Amino acid sequence: MSTKTLSKEAEIGLMNFFNDRIDPLDMARAIRQVNLTLALGVLNDQENIQLNAAKLGESFYWLNELAEILDPYLDLE
Fold first, then answer.
1. 55 within 8 A of 26, measured Cβ to Cβ
2. pLDDT single digits (tens) 14-25
3. Full-model pTM
4. d(CA 40, CA 32)
5. By C-alpha distance, which of 27, 24, 48, 22 is closest to 36?
6. What whole-number distance in Å separates Cα of residue 20 and Cα of residue 24?
7. Rounded-to-integer distance, Cα 11 and Cα 69, Å
8. C-alpha distances in Å from residue 18, one per residue of 9, 10, 12, 37, 42
9. Are 34 and 56 in contact (CB under 8 A)?
């Protein structure tokens, strides 16, 4: 486990993300939905992924938003 501290920018970004964009409980649910759907999809020949495509797409959106706060990549020029 890493003990590295967040940069001030990442800390502010996370606070804004969870205060203004998505509730932390909803984010936790999104992460769990992605994990469950992907795991079941692999185990069940992709059937579960097709059934949960809308939820999975929304969860991927939120995971990408969180990733951009922690390590901006898409906003770089």
1. no
2. 999 999 998 888
3. 0.61
4. 12
5. 48
6. 11
7. 9
8. 14, 12, 10, 24, 31
9. yes
Token pair, residue 33, equals 């939905």
pLDDT tens-digit profile of 15-67? 999 999 988 888 888 888 888 887 777 777 667 677 777 777 888 888 888 88
What pLDDT, on the 0 to 100 scale, is given for residue 74? 63
Length of the chain, in residues: 77
* Dihedral (Cα; 68, 10, 22, 30), 10-degree rounding: 60
HEC readout, the chain = CCCCCCCHHHHHHHHHHHHHHCCHHHHHHHHHHHHHHHHHHHHCCCHHHHHCHHHHHHHHHHHHHHHHHHCCCCCCC
